[in-house]
Amino acid sequence: MKIVVNGEARNVRAPDLAALLAELEFPPELVATAVNETFVRAKERAARTLTEGDRVEILTPRQGG
Fold this sequence. Notes:
Blueprint: E1 2-5, E2 8-11, H1 17-23, E3 32-35, E4 38-40, E5 55-59
Parallel strand pairs: 1-5
Antiparallel strand pairs: 1-2, 3-4, 3-5
């Protein structure tokens, strides 16, 4: 299925947000996620199914100075 992840079009096999994080090798405990501009809590990721054209944002913490 074709979705957009962090602004980049991608073809993925993951049926849900939790599976997408695993497919893209993101550590689920270290990221924040949103689908179609709606925040998705970590405990809700497996229940959040993905559909063609969804826009997913995966945010990682950054340190700055």
